[in-house]
Amino acid sequence: xxxxxxxxxxxxxxxxxxxxxxxxxxxxxxxxxxxxxxxxxxxxxxxxxxxxxxxxxxxxxxxxxxxxxxxxxxxxxxxxxxxxxxxxxxxxxxxxxxxxxxxxxxxxxxxxxxxxxxxxxxxxxxxxxxxxxxxxxxxxxxxxxxxxxxxxxxxxxxxxxxxxxxxxxxxxxxxxx
Length: 177
Fold this sequence. Notes:
Layout (H helix, E strand, L loop, with lengths): L1 H16 L1 E4 L19 E10 L5 E15 L2 E3 L6 E7 L3 E10 L5 H6 L4 E3 L3 E4 L28 H21 L1
Antiparallel strand pairs: 1-5, 2-3, 2-6, 3-4, 6-7, 6-8
């Protein structure tokens, strides 16, 4: 009985290492930069991931200084932890998406609603690590991410007001003609 339990635990331990994994880290290549960052910005991020061609789901959210802005668009996770991407095999390709925001808000949605600086990457494909014994080191989740720029998302009321203004202007032009 003990051998069965130990075998099951070992199998579970090994199965945990076969998932495709990714890490946040700085990326000094031509992609994956966020040029609007300043060295002391509190940068937060949510990593979304899933199989290539499938939908992406939240994997990890790092807030409250868990990520460091090194300036020049570089982002670094000093924990060195890797994060399993659900449904992705080790050393495979994963679909990833990153959402970043600056400030003390706990999630991207709250930061966007408050008019803070936010940015979201498109969904892109990135290699993972995690296979073998010892598990291979995952590459940066930002390796193939296109460069991003921060901006603010206008509130819905601002968009509605702009729409009403445009409609009034069109009605005025129509009457004048």
